[in-house]
Amino acid sequence: MLSVQENQRRLRKVVASMSRPPLYSFYLLFCFFSLLSGIQSDDLQIIMKLKSILLQTSNTSAFDSWESSNSMCNFIGITCNSQGSVTKIKLSHQNLTVVLPFDFICQLQSLEKLSLGFNNLHSPIMDDLKNCVKLQYLNLSNNLFTGWSVPAEISSLSQLQYLYLDGSGLSQTFPWKSLQNMTGLVQLYLGNNPFPFPKEVLQLTNLTWLDLCNCSIHGRIPAEIGNLKELIYLGLWGNNMTGKIPVEIGNLVNLKKLSLSHNSFIGKLPVGLRNLTKLEVFHFSMNNLEGNLSELRFLNNLVSLRLCENELSGQVPAEFGEFKKLAILSLCYNSFTGPLPRNLGSSAKLYIVNLSMNFFTGQIPPYMCKQGT
């Protein structure tokens, strides 16, 4: 038999063990909310400091809601997560004209999306950008940057999936080697910048969109372009590229849009283009291509076909008359001959047709005139 004292002692232990977890849990909960409050306070201070910097020379109403009396997560252009931390800043088209303060922006520890396109941001992009390590989306397109600061290193942005730097005045100081660490990139827009062809992009096998238009690129398309088998869009128009189009481009079976106009490509349309059956836009105008269009007769998903100002010849394939989606057909200034397919336009809704300056014979297909101009 246990004594009364022993029973009382055991009872006290049981009571103590029952009461400790709630107190302990309350303590942990208190610590959590204290930490959360501290994070929100830090983010608010950074956001308000960012406002003061951006307003120094910018004439915009974008920050009218950015008042400390309002909830930070209700500021226009700001998105928070469930913990109240800033995850997105969207300030495109806001007439911002300052030097971008990445030293403040990248202190936002949960920042995943930064969209500042179509402003007048200027000066070099500072090295502090490398501290935005959680960024998945970065849009600095159509600004007035003059390059990158030295040292320029952004390989730490390994979580980037979307990178838009087109039309930003960047130069060859772009940190190309940093791309090698961004293996998750899905969309890469670098058009309208004076770049060489960046071989580093040929290793980004997850890319679905690659825009290198109007970059003054010289030389040939590397055969390794065929490694980017996830590409849906490939844009290289408006460069100074030469040589033959590599047959490896036929490996890009997911392509829907291929734009290589305004270059100096030579030779025939490569064997294997018939594999690109998902193609909807095929633009090769203003090059020096020759030969016929036999490789294109299998591309029955075409919506827009532009091949003006080349040296192409032969007849328009009869299969073109069966293309049900074809809306734009531009074959001007070539050396095509023979009659046009009689049913051209019978299945499609052609609204732009330019076949001028060729050597076609016979009658104009009756269906084409109903829709075309």
TrEMBL record:
| Residues of the Leucine-rich repeat-containing N-terminal plant-type domain | 41-81
InterPro entries named in the record: Leu-rich_rpt (IPR001611), LRR-RLK (IPR052592), LRR_dom_sf (IPR032675), LRR_N_plant-typ (IPR013210), LRR_R13L4/SHOC2-like (IPR055414)
Which Pfam families does this UniProt record tie to the protein?
Answer: LRR_1 (PF00560), LRR_14 (PF23598), LRRNT_2 (PF08263)
Q: Which keywords appear in this protein's UniProt record, sorted alphabetically?
A: Leucine-rich repeat, Repeat, Signal
Q: Which residues form the Disease resistance R13L4/SHOC-2-like LRR domain?
A: 210-334
Q: Is this entry keyworded Ribonucleoprotein?
A: no
Q: Which domain of life is it from?
A: Eukaryota
Q: Which Gene3D superfamilies match?
A: Ribonuclease Inhibitor
The protein's name: Uncharacterized protein
Q: What is the lineage of its organism?
A: Eukaryota, Viridiplantae, Streptophyta, Embryophyta, Tracheophyta
